[in-house]
Amino acid sequence: MKPSLGSRPTVVLLVGFMGAGKTSVGRALGQLLNWKFEDLDDRIEAREGRSIEEIFRESGEAEFRRAESAALNELLTEQNSGSRIVALGGGAFVQARNALLIQAAGACTVFLDAPAEELYRRCEQQGRERPLCRDPEQFRKLLDERRPSYLQATLRVDTRTKEVNAVAAEVACSLGLG
Ligand code: S3P
Predict the structure, then answer these.
(1) What is the pTM (predicted TM-score) of this model?
(2) Which of these CATH numbers, 3.40.50.720, 3.40.50.300, 3.10.300.10, 3.90.1150.10, describes 11-174?
């Protein structure tokens, strides 16, 4: 069941594939609303004392997913943390146990959508090491597998060819926070 937009959310989770702009839009949205911004991947790295790339290389994806769920659970159950925007890693919302944690917390989710070619191009431009961004074919296949899960988000925003600030303003407006 999707959380409704009926009441004012205090946690907004940005979901979507690698290159969707979850971190840059999240930062812009945080500034716009004067809400705290956090990237879940940063919390995972701080908790584990290793980079995402090191966790994948040294311990494998299953261990990364365990660390990701633990970090998400910690974040969602923190008390008195105020209003927050959180960027999730591309695979977080796809894991059933995480979707349940999110539902239980009543958090609002926003799917930042874009076509595979644009997402791949953005990842290449960023030049950041991403363990699951290998070649265009594998990238598209993984996106196709995950898309039905992303569509379960409370809201979908098309980010194609849009500037970061414009996407942030659209998210704020759609959530009734603008
Ligand atoms: C992942 C995406 C990454 C990071 C990890 C796994 C994924 O985050 O969490 O490499 O499974 O799609 P970004 O979506 O911020 O690149």
Answers:
(1) 0.95
(2) 3.40.50.300
